[in-house]
Design brief:
Layout: H1 2-33, E1 36-41, H2 49-64, E2 69-74, H3 82-90, E3 95-99, H4 111-114, H5 123-129, H6 133-144, E4 147-163, E5 177-180, H7 184-192, E6 196-199, H8 202-210, E7 216-219, H9 221-226, E8 236-252, H10 253-257, H11 261-295, E9 299-301, H12 305-312, H13 326-337
Parallel strand pairs: 1-2, 1-3, 5-6, 8-9
Antiparallel strand pairs: 3-8, 4-7, 4-8
Helix pairs in contact: 2-11
This protein binds bis[(2S)-2,3-dihydroxypropyl] hydrogen phosphate.
The site of bis[(2S)-2,3-dihydroxypropyl] hydrogen phosphate has 14 residues, from β8.
Length: 338
């Protein structure tokens, strides 16, 4: 009897082992056959580091997955971008949207606290903050809305005012039409700063400046040099540093879940490395870019920072849908770094 029981147990072990092996082989076979093409959309120009970084990350992912994950990159809003790009993600398209976190604010209002004006003194503070629980909680909320966030720190520089007129105080902005991207964060920020916030897609911006449709725009030195804003009549930069320009990388949670786990690990790792590289590069390049802009006749003008901070203070109030105390939590984390 004992011998018979042992034989039955041995048979069961062998059957289980063969099932597991077959499943493993099937999964491996599945991965061998697995192929996914993702279209990645953003608004940046070919000469901007964001564009270069996205192309490098896509190439690295393609190589490390032996071609299983092909990310086709589309700069300059060739595909749906801004709000429409994020909508593609939420709809579950095979699509990656690269926009600043204010565009996620429509789905998770707390992101308006992350991307609020005059919060950060350095790139490093923001990079540190997005790894802390207060932001990880925001990212979890985004996943509940169908948005998997692969990165938040593709920083392209502090946004300053870029105008034909010299600006030093909020009063100097009175009556001035300043182009902004089309989210409440930008509109509310430039309005509080004293301007007439004028939403336009980037593709219409420089012609609007040249034709006098707007009196200026705002953007970083990397925006200025990469899109040749310095060739327009907007030669005065008011160093407000009112918003830290940064992009996130967003993919549908449904699409993400369908990708085999070890490909997901490669994708996540490469986007993380890409952001680290871009922050390092821009930190190294900033002084040289300022010098180059000055050689093109761009003037950098100091501003009354206290006056602008006072003008922006009313914006640090929770809107409907925001977590109670979210601004206090963000301020507390930043204070802990200083
Ligand atoms: O959503 C990504 C950016 O925040 C959009 O900023 P925008 O529309 O001022 O474009 C920045 C330029 O550098 C694009 O070339």
């Amino acid at each position: 009897m004992k011998r018979k029981s042992l034989l039955i147990m041995l048979a069961l072990v062998l059957i289980t082992a063969s099932i597991v092996t077959a499943a493993g082989r099937q999964e491996a076979a599945g991965e061998e056959d697995y192929k996914l093409v993702l279209r990645l959309s953003h608004v940046f120009s070919p000469a901007e580091q964001l564009t270069i970084s996205m192309d490098e990350v896509a190439a690295s992912i393609y190589e490390k997955t032996d071609g299983a994950i092909e990310i086709q990159t589309f700069p300059q809003a060739q595909l749906p971008a801004y709000k429409e790009g994020v909508e593609q993600v939420v709809r579950g398209a095979d699509f990656i949207s690269v926009e600043d976190p204010s565009f996620i604010g429509d789905y998770v209002p707390d992101f308006k606290a992350l991307y609020a004006p005059m919060l950060y003194r350095s790139f490093d503070e923001y990079v540190d903050l997005v790894q802390r629980d207060v932001v990880l909680d925001m990212m979890a909320q985004a996943e509940e809305q169908g948005i998997k966030i692969l990165a938040l720190d593709y920083i392209y520089g502090f946004r300053n005012l870029i105008t034909d007129k010299v600006i030093r105080t909020p009063a100097d902005l009175s009556g001035m039409r300043i182009r902004v991207p089309g989210t409440r964060t930008y509109i509310d920020t430039l309005t509080a700063m004293g301007a007439i916030a004028t939403p336009l897609p980037w593709g219409e911006t420089l012609s609007a400046v040249q034709q006098g449709v707007v009196d200026g725009l705002e953007g970083s030195e990397f925006t200025n040099i990469g899109t040749r804003v310095y060739e327009t009549r907007a030669k005065n930069v008011a160093t407000t540093r009112h918003i830290l320009g940064t992009c996130g990388v967003y993919i549908s949670t449904e699409v993400w879940a369908g990708i085999p786990e070890h490909y997901r690990e490669i994708i996540q790792e490469e986007f993380t490395k890409g952001a680290e590289n871009m922050v390092r590069l821009l930190s190294e390049q900033h002084a040289g870019v300022v010098e180059e802009l000055e050689s093109y006749g761009v003037k950098f003008n100091e501003v009354d920072g206290d006056a602008f901070r006072k003008a922006l203070a009313p914006l640090y109030v929770e809107e409907s849908g925001m977590t109670p105390g979210i601004f206090e939590k963000v301020f507390a984390e930043l204070d802990s770094m200083r």
